[in-house]
Amino acid sequence: MSTVDNPREAGPYLYLLVTMVLFGSAFTSSKVVVGQLPHDVAAMLRFGGGAVILVLLLCLRPGSGRFSWRDLFLAGLVGLIGVFAYNFFFFWGISLAPAIDGSVIVPVLSPVLTTVVFLLTGREGASPPRVVGLVLGVAGAVVFFVGIGTGTFTGSRLFGDLIYLVAAACWAGYSIASKRVLSGMEPLRATTYATGVGALALVITAIPTLSTADWSTVRTSTWANVVFLAVGPTAVAYLFYYRALRTVSPVTATITMFSVPVFGTVSSVLFLGESFTLVQVIGAVITIAGALLAVTRANPRVSRSAR
């Protein structure tokens, strides 16, 4: 039965689609926020607010009184990767480089890195198309970085794009680790614990910078973006991503991140007036094509036990 005929099978992919739309818009909103606030403070506000929303949802859910230190510990470790580390580097990178760069680097290279881990650990096969795809993905990334020099080149932009690479690695690790955590935990509880622990780490990191922020000059539109980031790309998107990961594999989940550059680019062009150089466009196309090859299984047949 196809996913169209069975809504239950289509559900995880709908969750992923909404998640990717929200992730794409997060680049633009985050760029607006770091324009007025330090990057670590912006990350703290986004995930501190998201954590509060998720805690309230968990408390309102029937059976919320059940608590396990083991669940908190496991989900918290994942949160340190996918919430704290990822967003620390994400907001750092977006404070230095255009949002449009991050909307290509992070979502495209995350599935490539996830696939590399699965290939190296023997959890998936290394077919010739996948190897070619990985090579193309790396080559496209090199072309993309070279393309920076043909446009508005600054040392901070190049450094910011390198920071985006670190964020992509964090997200790949988060996707892989989350699958194990979800095996014995409901999505809302896992998301709340992971986001709460990650947000707490972001708060601790931002404490030295809080006094340097000029709160009196923060515009109303900036606060509106903070609220949107906390509700949409954080509370809703992370919860939906966890729900999808209960059904699909980490590689499949990260494949859907190829749609993020579309949403992120459109948003950055419309609301921030950013643009690509021609060389960067070529590099992005090569990277996406290579990444699609890299994450595609050579043999689509799945064993009955795997199902």
From TrEMBL:
GO terms for cellular component: membrane. Residues 13-145, 159-295 form the EamA domain. The keyword Transmembrane applies. It comes from the Bacteria. InterPro entries: AA-Vitamin_Transporters, EamA_dom, EmrE-like. Its main location: membrane. Keywords: Membrane, Transmembrane, Transmembrane helix. This is Threonine/homoserine efflux transporter RhtA. It comes from Kutzneria buriramensis.
